[in-house]
C-alpha cells in the first residue's frame, strides 16, 4: 500500500476556468499537506502538461469555455493507453456526475465543495492510483526478470530466441546474412572446483561485461546458462565478416582476470553458424553453431570454428593459470 508520505507527494493538477476556485482548491490541498500541486485555467494545456508531468490525479472542472472537461478526457485517453484516467471530475451539475464517470473519470466531487468529501475522495483516488503504478512497475520488473539472466543481467535463452528470430527476419528482408556465435568457456569447471561457485560467478559476470564491451550495440549478447553465452550479429555479408568479431571475443576472454587478489587466465571456444548459408531456422542455426563449438573444443579450444571453414588457429592452447596477484 502507498504510504501517507507517498500520497502527500503525489503530483496533482487542478483545472478550472475560475481563479477563485483554483485558489480555494490549492489552499485546501496545501493545508492538508500535499506538496506537489499545480494548476491551469487553460483546458487545452491539460494534455500537454500531463504528457510532460504524468500527474497522479487531475482535478478537472467539467464546465469550461472552449474545451470542456469531457473533451479534455477524450484527449487524456490517448495518452493513458493503459486505460486508467487519473481524473477526479469537479461539477456543480448533478446530471454531469454519471456522464463524467461514463467518460472515464474515476470519481467526482460536487460543487460547492464539502471539505471532508474533497479530502476523502482525493485520498482514496490517490491510494488507488499509486497502487496501480506500483503494480505496473512490479509487472514490468517481473517481465524483465523473466527474460534476463539473474547473474549477468544478459538476455536469457527465451529472449535470445526472440532476438535471433527478429535478426533473421531483418536479414531476410534486407538480403543480408546473420551470424550466430556459440561460446563455451574452457576449463570453467576447474575454477569452480578450485575457488568455489561464488568466485566462478564473478568470472561469469566479468566475461559478460567483456562480451558486451567487445560487441556492437546492435548485436545481441546472451547467456544460455552455465558457462555458455551467445552473440548474434546482424547485417553480415559472409562468414568472413563474423570471423573478425569472433577473434575479438576470443581475445577479450583471454585477457587476465583480477579477482580477490588472484590473477586468472581463461579462454573460450566459439562455434559459428551463418544464416541462411547453414540453416534458416533458429533451432537449426543454434545446433549447427553448437556442432562447430564442439569442433573448436576438439581442435584444441581457445579458438573459433565454423562448420563451413576449418578451425582457425588463434592463440596457443589454453592453460589455466592461477597466480597470486602482487600488491
Ligand atoms: N559459478 C557458476 N558455475 C556454474 C553456473 N552454472 C553452471 N556452472 C558450472 O559451470 C561448469 C561448466 O563446466 P563445463 O562447461 O561442463 O566444463 P568445462 O570445465 O568448462 O569444460 P570444457 O567446456 O570442455 O572446457 C560446471 O561445473 C557447472 O557446475 C553458475 O551459474 N555459476
Automatic annotation (TrEMBL):
Where are the 4-aspartylphosphate modifications? 61
Q: What is its EC number?
A: 2.7.7.65
Start and end of every Response regulatory domain? Answer: 11-126
Any single GO molecular-function term of the entry would be: diguanylate cyclase activity
Residue ranges constituting the GGDEF domain according to the UniProt record? 176-309
This protein's source sits in the domain of life called: Bacteria
What InterPro entries does this protein map onto? CheY-like_superfamily, DGC-Regulatory_Protein, GGDEF_dom, Nucleotide_cyclase, Rev_trsase/Diguanyl_cyclase, Sig_transdc_resp-reg_receiver
- A Pfam family of the record is Response_reg
Query: Which keywords does this Swiss-Prot/TrEMBL entry list?
Result: Nucleotidyltransferase, Phosphoprotein, Transferase
- Which major enzyme category is it? transferase
Entry protein name: Diguanylate cyclase
Source taxonomy = Bacteria, Pseudomonadati, Pseudomonadota, Betaproteobacteria, Burkholderiales
Amino acid at each position: 500500500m502507498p504510504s501517507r508520505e507517498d500520497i502527500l507527494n503525489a503530483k496533482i493538477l487542478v483545472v478550472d476556468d475560475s481563479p477563485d476556485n483554483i485558489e480555494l482548491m490549492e489552499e485546501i490541498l496545501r493545508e492538508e499537506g500535499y506538496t506537489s500541486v499545480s494548476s491551469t485555467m487553460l483546458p487545452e494545456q491539460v494534455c500537454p502538461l500531463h504528457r510532460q508531468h504524468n500527474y497522479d490525479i487531475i482535478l478537472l472542472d467539467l464546465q469550461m469555455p472552449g474545451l470542456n472537461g469531457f473533451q479534455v478526457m477524450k484527449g487524456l485517453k490517448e495518452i493513458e493507453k493503459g486505460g486508467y484516467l487519473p481524473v477526479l471530475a469537479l461539477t456543480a451539475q448533478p446530471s454531469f456526475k454519471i456522464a463524467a464517470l461514463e467518460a472515464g473519470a474515476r470519481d467526482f466531487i460536487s460543487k460547492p465543495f464539502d471539505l471532508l468529501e474533497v479530502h476523502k475522495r482525493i485520498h482514496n483516488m490517490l491510494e488507488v492510483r499509486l497502487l496501480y503504478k506500483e503494480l505496473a512497475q512490479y509487472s514490468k520488473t517481473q517481465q524483465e526478470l523473466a527474460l534476463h539472466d539473474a547473474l549477468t543481467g544478459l538476455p536469457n535463452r527465451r529472449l535470445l530466441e526472440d532476438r535471433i528470430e527478429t535478426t533473421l527476419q531483418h536479414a531476410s528482408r534486407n538480403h543480408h546474412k546473420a551470424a550466430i556465435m556459440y561460446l563455451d568457456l574452457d576449463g570453467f569447471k576447474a575454477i569452480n572446483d578450485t575457488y568455489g561457485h561464488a568466485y566462478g560467478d564473478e568470472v561469469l559476470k566479468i566475461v559478460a561485461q567483456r562480451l558486451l564491451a567487445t560487441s556492437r550495440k546492435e548485436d545481441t549478447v546472451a547467456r544460455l546458462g552455465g558457462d555458455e553465452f551467445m552473440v548474434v550479429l546482424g547485417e553480415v555479408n559472409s562468414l568472413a565478416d563474423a570471423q573478425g568479431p569472433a577473434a575479438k571475443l576470443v581475445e577479450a576472454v583471454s585477457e587476465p582476470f583480477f579477482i580477490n587478489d588472484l590473477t586468472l587466465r581463461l579462454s573460450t571456444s566459439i562455434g559459428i553458424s551463418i544464416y541462411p548459408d547453414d540453416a534458416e531456422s533458429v533451432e537449426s542455426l543454434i545446433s549447427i553453431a553448437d556442432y562447430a563449438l564442439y569442433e573448436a573444443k576438439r581442435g584444441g579450444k581457445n579458438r573459433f570454428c565454423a562448420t563451413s571453414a576449418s578451425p582457425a588457429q588463434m592463440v596457443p592452447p589454453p592453460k589455466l593459470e592461477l597466480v597470486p596477484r602482487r600488491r
